[in-house]
Amino acid sequence: MDLAYYPGCSLYQSAKLYNHQAKLIFGRLGLHLQEIEDWSCCGATSAGKINDFMAVALPARNLGIAESTGFTELVIPCSACYSRTIVAQKQLQDFPLLKNEINIELSKKVKGSIKISSTLDVLKRAVSSSKFGTIPLQKLENFKPACYYGCMYTRFPYDVPVSDNVENPQGMETVLEAIGVRALDWNYKTLCCGASSVIYNPDCAFDLMAKIMRDAVSRGANCLVVTCPMCQMNMESQQDHFCEKHGIKERLPVYFITELMGMAFGFSKKDLQPAESLFIDGMDWTQLCGDSV
Asked: pLDDT tier at 273 (50, 70, 90 boundaries)?
């Protein structure tokens, strides 16, 4: 089955790993991600802070491109891109004059016909299908993950239709259970990690990250699992900084959910990530998964 795919800026920069793994895992599930041509930045959180019109117009351009391909579903892995795009689509539906104003400038017009799905939307559907039961799985016995969703996947600036409980999302837990991994229950799965404020207000961001880390560790987690590129980057790359600042001795690897699925599907380390990424702050990537991959 072919699906339109909008990777967004992060998956071509800080989250190249996620882009690679998403295509790999979806392929194993019989789903082909067809990247839309000539896509552009959706504006993410920045556009909404400075220009309401551009916050809708930027993702509208990508929607027009996706709809022109004839696909019925658009998959967006980045939580910020997903939020920005699904909000824009709903606003275009609710405000016809705005839609007309934006469409005048677009070569490929927005019709509002395409379904927008997150990575988890598609993965939840896939693991509940009969075909999933035919895929051989490796046991991942050593994992005790805390599923960290962050704020962009759960808090929207506009009323939009979403498939998960925004107060207590269960999408990652459902997918992990399907591959034999039981996630822990904890308090801070939707707390903001500070996002880009780590650049201009690191103390605030470090405080938020420390709360997330401390609660995950207190529940017995030995890793965090995410779908948001910003959350993954903050919680991993800033881990030593915020842990030292707040006196947290423990360190946890931060995996994209596609990484655990790849391990369960039997992909090798080389298949799942480039050699230079096999070590996280001196921790061997195989420490948790052992010799099974």
From this structure: confident
**How many other CB atoms sit within 10 Å of the CB of residue 191?**
18
Task: Report d(CA 146, CA 209) in Å as an integer.
Answer: 14
Q: Which domain holds residue 179?
A: 136-289
Tell me the sheet residues that pair with 283. 280
From residue 24, give the alpha-carbon distance in Å to each of 28, 223, 271. 6, 22, 9
Domain end (from 61, 96, 120): 120
Buried b / exposed e along 89-119 (16+ C-beta atoms within 10 A): bbbbeeeeebbeebbeeeebbbeeebebbbb
Question: For 169-218, what is each residue's pLDDT tens digit?
Answer: 999 999 999 999 999 999 999 999 999 899 999 999 999 999 999 999 99
Helix (H) or strand (E) holding 60: helix 52-68
The answer to whether the pTM exceeds 0.85 is: yes
For residue 263 the two structure tokens come to 């391990």
Name the maximum alpha-carbon separation found in the chain: 59
Looking at the structure, tell me whether residues 149 and 277 fall in a common domain.
yes
Token output for 179? 């591959």
Residue 128, in any domain of the structure = no
Alpha helices in the chain (DSSP H): 16-28, 44-50, 52-68, 79-94, 96-104, 119-127, 171-178, 197-200, 202-218, 229-237, 239-245, 257-264, 269-272, 286-289
DSSP state of 112: S
The tokens for 250 are 């423990």
Helix (H) or strand (E) holding 145: strand 145-147
The CATH number assigned to the domain holding 38 equals 1.20.1050.140
Total number of domains constituting the chain? 2
Closest CA to 229 of 1, 54, 12, 18: 18
